[in-house]
Amino acid sequence: MAERKPVAVVAGAGPGNGAALARRFAQAGYAIALLSRSGATHAALERELTGARGYDCDVGSGESVARAFAAVRADLGEVSVLLYNAGPGVFADVESITPEQFEASWRVNAYGALLCSRQVIPAMKTAGQGSIVFIGATASRRGGPRSAAFAPAKAAQRSLAESMARSLWPAGIHVCLIVVDGVVDLPRTRQGMPGKPDNFFIKPAAVAQIAFELTRQDPSGWSFEVEARPFGETW
Amino acid sequence: MAERKPVAVVAGAGPGNGAALARRFAQAGYAIALLSRSGATHAALERELTGARGYDCDVGSGESVARAFAAVRADLGEVSVLLYNAGPGVFADVESITPEQFEASWRVNAYGALLCSRQVIPAMKTAGQGSIVFIGATASRRGGPRSAAFAPAKAAQRSLAESMARSLWPAGIHVCLIVVDGVVDLPRTRQGMPGKPDNFFIKPAAVAQIAFELTRQDPSGWSFEVEARPFGETW
Amino acid sequence: MAERKPVAVVAGAGPGNGAALARRFAQAGYAIALLSRSGATHAALERELTGARGYDCDVGSGESVARAFAAVRADLGEVSVLLYNAGPGVFADVESITPEQFEASWRVNAYGALLCSRQVIPAMKTAGQGSIVFIGATASRRGGPRSAAFAPAKAAQRSLAESMARSLWPAGIHVCLIVVDGVVDLPRTRQGMPGKPDNFFIKPAAVAQIAFELTRQDPSGWSFEVEARPFGETW
Amino acid sequence: MAERKPVAVVAGAGPGNGAALARRFAQAGYAIALLSRSGATHAALERELTGARGYDCDVGSGESVARAFAAVRADLGEVSVLLYNAGPGVFADVESITPEQFEASWRVNAYGALLCSRQVIPAMKTAGQGSIVFIGATASRRGGPRSAAFAPAKAAQRSLAESMARSLWPAGIHVCLIVVDGVVDLPRTRQGMPGKPDNFFIKPAAVAQIAFELTRQDPSGWSFEVEARPFGETW
To answer: Which end of chain A is more exposed for a tag (fewer CB within 10 A), N or C?
Structure first.
C-alpha cells in the first residue's frame, strides 16, 4: 500500500497567495486541503493540482472549522503544515469603519487563526514536529490611519503567533509569520492600480517560496518573522 | 451660573489604575464619569470624589456603551478626556485558553476601546481638542507563552490606538498609550506575590500622573507611547 | 551658608533643544552647566540664565570631557541631571557619505554619550538617584535611505541608553530617551523649509518640558522611551 | 576559456558562522574570499574548499580593506555576495567596559561594515544585482545590561543595513540582516556552557543556509531581517 502524503492545509485558499501556497506545497509532494468560504475557488485548484481537495469552511466559526478539519483528517490524514492565509482587509479610518467591520476583520484574521491552530496542534505535538505559517501584512506591525479595522486584526494575529511560537517551538512546532509588505500581484490589484510597473507588485509565488523554506529550516536556527517586500518598494 | 467642569471618563473604574486615574483628574478639576460593569466599585469613589459619578456599562456591548455615554453627556456634558482602562487578563497558553476567553479578552480590550472612542470623537473633533489615553500592558508589545488570549487583545488595542493617533492627531485629538510594564500595586497582587519588595510594584498613582501629563502636553511635541515600569524591574 | 543648587549638565548647548533644556531646568532651580564646542553659544545663555555657566568641551574626546566635568564639579558640585543633546546630523546615503562623516557622527552621538555618562554615574550611584536623558531622533529607531551616517549613530546611542537603563535603574538612576520625531523649530530649519505651517515644527520648549517631567517621575513607574512629535505630522 | 565563478566574500572568516558560510557558498559554486585578521584561520579552509582563498584584512582600517578587496578583484573578479560576519563581542555593563572596548566593538561591527560595503556597491550597481548579508545578533535589537559595548555596535550595524537596504534595493542589491538569536555551536561556547543540551545551540550550517536562501530570493519578495533562533530557546 502506498505511503500517505504529508498534509498541508491552506486556510484562505483564494487566488493569489492561497493558490500559490497550494501549488508550491503540492509540487513538494504534499496532499493539499483547500479551505475557503465558497467552493467556487476550490474547483479550479482541485482540477489543477493532483491530490488537492477543497473544503467549505468559515474560519470564524468553531463548528465549521471543527467539521472541516474532521473531514481533512478522515480524507487525507493528520496535518503537517498549516498555512493560514485567511484575512481580507477593509481600509478605512476609525470614524468610517463600523464596529461590525472591526469585529469581522478580527474574526477571520485572529479568531480563526486560533481555531484552526487548535485543530492541528495536538497531532503535531504527538509527532514532535509540524509547521504553522501565518500570512501577515504591513498592518501586522503598524496601525495606519486607514487600517483601523485591518491593523488591529493583523496585530492580534501576529501577537497570537508570537505567543504560540514561544510555547510551541520547544515541542518541535515551527510557528512563524510572513509579513507581506506590499501589494500582491493579482488581476484585481493590477486593475485597481493602473500604470504601476511590474516591480511594484509581490508575486504570490515568492511568498509561497518563503513559506516553503520556513517549513524546511533546521530547528537549530528557526525564524519567527520574515518579510516579503518588493525590491522596488519604498519603506 | 457656574461654568461646567471639563469631563473625564474612566472606562474600567476598578481599584488600582482606574481609581487612581479618577483621583488624579478629579484633583485637577474634572468631573469624573466612572464606567464599570458593577455599580459596587463606583460607590466608594463617588463618595470620595466630589463630582464623580458612576455608570453601569458593559464596554463590549454597543448598546450598553451608547446608553452610558448618553447619560454622561446629559449629566456632565461632552467628554474632554477618555481614559480607557478596561481589560482584565487571562494568563494561559494557546492550548489552555478557550476560544471564549480569547474572544472575551478582545471584546473588552479592543472592541470596547473602539466603541467608547467612537462616542467621544465627534465632540472632540468639533472642539478641535481632546485626549484619549489607553492603558496598555507589557502584552501590548509582546506575545508571551502564557498570554495567548491577553496579548492578542492588547496588541489589537495598541494597533487601534496607533491607527487612531495617525488619523486624529491632526484634528487636535491626542490619542496615546501607556504601557504598564510590571505588576500594579493592589491588595490582590500583593497577596498573589508574597515576599516581593515594595519597589517591585507599580503604584497606580504613578500611572495616573503619566496619564495626566500626557493630556497636558504641548501639541507641538506629543507622545504616542509611554512606558510605566518600576525602576527595580528586570526588563 | 546657602544650600547648593542641584546641577544639570546640558551637553550640546546650542540653540534649539539645548537652550530650551537649559531654560527649563534653570527655571526649576538647577545650576546649569552648558557644554559645547564653541564658547560663543554659551555667552548669551550665561547672560540670560542666573547660575548658568559655559564650558568648552569636545564630547568626542575623553580628555576634553574629563576636563569639563572636573570643572563643573569644582564650580557647581556633583551632577544630578545629565541632558545629552549633542549630535548634529549629516544627511546622505551610503554611497555619498564619507567614512569620516560616519565616524564623526558616531563619535558625537554615541561615544560622547558614553564618556559623559561615565563622568556622572559614580556620584549618582552614591546618591542613589539621578537622571540621564538622551535627546534622540527619528533616526534612533529607523535607518532611512539618506541617514546612512546619522541613523547608525543614533541607533548606537539608543542601544547604549537601553543597556544603561537596564543596569542603572535598579541603582536609582533614571536613564531615558526622548525620540524627537520631527523638525525642531529654529530660524535655520524655518529658512530651510519655507512655507511650512507653524504646526509642522516641534517647539524646543515642548521637548524640554518632556525632559523635565521625566526627571520628576515616580520611580515606581518610570518611562524609558518617549516621543516628541508634532500633532500635525504624518508618521 | 572557463567562465569565472561568481565571487562571495566572507568578512570575518573565523570558525563557526564564517566557516559555515564559506562552505555553503563554495558548495553552490562560488569562489570564496576569506577575510580575517590572522592568516591562520584561512589555511584550513583554503585546503578544505576548492577555490577558497584567504586575505589578511583588518576590517576597521580603510587602507587594509581597500588592499584586500583590490586583491580579491584581481584574483577572483568582482564580488557578487558580501557576507559580513565580523564582530566579536565584549560582555560587560556601562561601568565595566572601557571607552576603548566601546570603540573597538563599533569599529569592527559597524565601521568595517560600511568600509566593506563601499568596496562592493559600485560593481553591484553596474551589474544591477548582488547581495550584502550582515550577520547580526540578539544585541542588534536590544541593549542588555551587559552588552553596553556590543549592543550599540550591533545596533549601528543594523541601522546601517536598514539605511542601505532602503537606498540600494531599488538598484537590485539585496541588503539584509540575519539576527542570530542564541549561542552558536562552537567548541569554545560548548566548553563555556557545560551541560547545555544540543538543542540549546545554533548550528552554523543553519545560519549559512538562511544566508544562502536570502541570496536566492525572488526580488518581488525580498526579506530584510530574518532571525536564526534555536527551537528550544526561551525568548
So the answer is: N
Chain A residues within 8 A of B148 when measuring between CB atoms = 114, 160, 163-164, 167
pLDDT tens per residue, range B160-213: 999 999 999 999 999 999 999 999 999 989 998 898 988 899 999 999 999 999
Distance set, CA A153 to CA A36, A64, B48 (Å): 19, 20, 40
**Boundaries of every domain in chain C:** 7-228
Residue C1 in this model has a pLDDT that exceeds 80: no
CA-based nearest residue in chain C for residue D168: C145
Instruction: Summarize the confidence of residues C73-79 as an average pLDDT.
Output: 97
Among candidate residues B142, B92, B145, the one with its CA nearest the CA of residue A168? B145
Chain B residue whose CA is closest to A100: B111
Question: What is the percentage of chain B residues whose pLDDT exceeds 90?
Answer: 84
Q: Is the ipTM of this complex over 0.85?
A: yes
* Grid coordinates of C9: 549638565
Q: CA–CA distance from B156 to each of A58, A157, A212, B159, B175 (Å)?
A: 22, 9, 28, 5, 15
Q: Which of A94, A160, A166 sits opposite B167 (nearest CB)?
A: A94
What pLDDT was estimated at residue C2?
58
pLDDT mean over A183-210: 92
D115 and C CB contact within 8 Å:
yes
Q: Is residue D109 less than 8 Å (CB to CB) from chain C?
A: no
CB contact under 8 A, B142 and A155: no
A158 contacts B164? CB cut-off 8 A: no
Decide if pLDDT at B234 tops 90.
no
Which residues, 6 or more positions from D188, have their beta carbon under 8 angstroms from its beta carbon? none
Nearest of C130, C43, C52, C37 to residue C87 by alpha carbon: C37
Name every chain D residue with its beta carbon within 8 A of the beta carbon of A205.
Answer: 218
Determine the residue type at C113.
A
Q: What local confidence, expressed as pLDDT, does residue B40 receive?
A: 65
Is B5 within 8 Å of B78 (Cβ atoms)? no
pLDDT at B1: 46
Chains with 3 or more CB pairs closer than 8 angstroms to B?
Answer: A, C
DSSP per-residue codes, A99-150: HHHHHHHHIIIIIHHHHHHHHHHHHHHHHT-EEEEEEEEGGGT---TTBTTH
pTM score, whole prediction: 0.97
Nearest to D152 among C95, C156, C165 (CB): C156
Q: By the CB < 8 Å criterion, does B94 face chain A? A: yes
pLDDT tens string C175-184: 999 999 999 9
- The residue type found at C146 is R
- A199 Cα distance to chain centroid: 23
Q: Any CB–CB contact under 8 A between B132 and chain A?
A: no
A38-52, C221-235, D41-55, range with the lowest pLDDT: A38-52
Q: Is A144 within 8 Å of B163 when comparing Cβ atoms?
A: yes
Contact C223 B224 (CB under 8 A): no
pLDDT digits (tens, 9 = 90+) for C9-37: 999 988 899 999 999 999 999 999 999 98
CB A45 within 8 A of CB A19: yes
Mean pLDDT, residues D42-53 taken together: 89
Residues D51, D9: contact at Cβ < 8 Å?
no
Q: In what order do the strands lie in the sheet with B52-56?
A: B52-56, B31-36, B7-11, B79-84, B130-137, B173-180, B225-228
What topology does CATH give the domain D7-228? Rossmann fold (3.40.50)
